[in-house]
Design a protein that fits this description.
Layout lengths: L5 E5 L10 H9 L5 E4 L6 H13 L5 E6 L2 H8 L5 E7 L10 H7 L8 E3 L5 E3 L4 H5 L5 H9 L23 E6 L7 H10 L4 E5 L5 H4 L1 H16 L1
Parallel strand pairs: 1-2, 1-3, 3-4, 4-7, 7-8
Antiparallel strand pairs: 5-6
Helix pairs in contact: 1-9, 2-3
């Protein structure tokens, strides 16, 4: 067996597992061979946490859970499984017990909050013509267009789902702050990171989609976490 833990990548709102594509390639290049990316339904925190738990349970051995954006709330809820060795947050929500991503966002609204709009079925979308500036301002126009058109909308009610028992209170944690984030206020990221007492905080001059715009430094943090767990 490889000495490196399995890595399970958890996406957030407005994207699917493919948002991790550049990080997957970089992790594989660095010798991570046991890689998984959850495709969550984004229908409720309970549904998404259970889908993530099912994937983690399929892994034989320790797992490093990595969450982007709302995926941070998912790993906070699902990370209590015994084979989860650590949690890595990438520009992500890390709610405490009783907190929801919506509550955290309302307390300190991000710059692009107004560009999120519900449809008649209760799903939340980032307005396509504002997706580039809101979610991934450092990416080129073509890549942003594909993200905008293929965005995976969550049910609006998911924003209000609160965490029950935060895994970060029991597991080692690492956090990446995006200083130019327009989807989660950077000061919210800093606050959530600091209260978890992580082993390392990395701040990147990046927007919300740091996993796509700066996959190298994001992978550096994941690799650091894996190495520390293995030592």
């Amino acid at each position: 067996m490889s000495e490196k833990p399995a890595v399970v990548l958890v996406h957030g709102f407005w994207g699917g597992a493919a948002h991790w594509s550049k990080v997957v390639v970089e992790l594989h290049r660095r010798g991570f061979t046991d890689l998984h990316a959850v495709e969550n339904p984004l229908t409720s925190l309970a549904d998404d946490a259970e889908r993530t738990r099912k994937m983690v349970r399929q892994v034989d051995g320790p797992v490093l859970l990595v969450g982007h954006s709302y995926g941070g709330a998912v790993i906070t809820e699902a990370g209590d499984l015994p084979n989860v060795a650590g949690l890595v947050y990438i520009a992500a929500f890390a709610p405490d017990a009783g907190e929801s991503p919506g509550q955290i966002s309302q307390e300190l609204p991000p710059a692009a909050f107004a560009n999120i709009a519900p449809d008649s079925d209760g799903y939340l979308w980032i307005k396509q013509d504002a997706f580039h500036e809101s979610f991934c301002q450092e990416l080129d126009a073509d890549e942003a267009l594909v993200m905008a058109v293929t965005q995976k909308a969550p049910l609006g009610s998911t924003f209000g789902d609160s965490v029950t028992s935060p895994a970060w209170k029991k597991k080692p944690v690492w956090y990446q702050v995006s200083a130019q984030d327009r989807m989660i206020h950077p000061d919210n990221e800093r606050r959530m990171a600091q209260r978890m007492n992580p082993r390392k905080i990395v701040e990147l001059d990046a927007g919300h989609a740091s996993l796509a715009s700066q996959p190298g430094p994001v992978t550096d943090l994941i690799e650091t976490a894996a190495n520390e767990l293995g030592s």
